[in-house]
Amino acid sequence: MQDIEILERKTLAENAYRLELITINQIKKGKTERHDREVYFRPNGATILLIDFDRKTVLLTKQFRLPVFLHGEKDQLLESCAGIIDEGELPEHAIIREVEEETGYRISEISPVAQGFMTPASVTEYVYFFTGKYSPEMKVSEGGGEESEGEDISLVELSGREARELLLSGKLRDVKTILLLQHAIIQNLI
């Protein structure tokens, strides 16, 4: 383990979440290096690939994402259902809540896949990955996300074949969705 000394912390912004400039001394191979790092303190999240195991379909969400647009992508982002874990909430409970908010499906059967940092160089968020069972009879509401949060989410149901083709074509741009679809293919879930 490298020796780290935090020299200074400066809040650059504190709107939805805090962005800090942190100055550190890092001792590597006996030499001290000084670095400035911007760190975005974002809550942990959870994501899930919804699978209808009988019909061999997956359910994805599609919505506008400003950073994606700013990167030059004009289409809405196709992605697995995801959301922030509220303080004191378990990842499993958070993703079940998010599924109902975003898709309108009330699910109960989920399985953990993986967990980890998505952008460890600059964002504190830790993400929990799941697969979960859905079927048409589990639809209990319209879904679409939380209007108060500016969400306008549509659903895209794909056959396993369509999902594989989309993955292999390189057209998917969301890493969490790529990871979950790869898992589903490797495990023969779709």
TrEMBL record:
Transmembrane region(s): none
Top-rank taxon: Bacteria
Keyword Hydrolase: yes
Catalytic reaction(s) noted: GDP-alpha-D-mannose + H2O = alpha-D-mannose 1-phosphate + GMP + 2 H(+)
UniProt xrefs under InterPro entries: NDP_pyrophosphatase, NUDIX_hydrolase-like_dom_sf, NUDIX_hydrolase_CS, NUDIX_hydrolase_dom
Domain Nudix hydrolase intervals: 41-180
Cofactor dependency: Mg(2+)
Keyword line: Hydrolase
Family annotation (NCBIfam families): nudix-type nucleoside diphosphatase, YffH/AdpP family
Subunit structure: Homodimer.
Name of the protein in question: GDP-mannose pyrophosphatase
Originating organism: Paradesertivirga mongoliensis
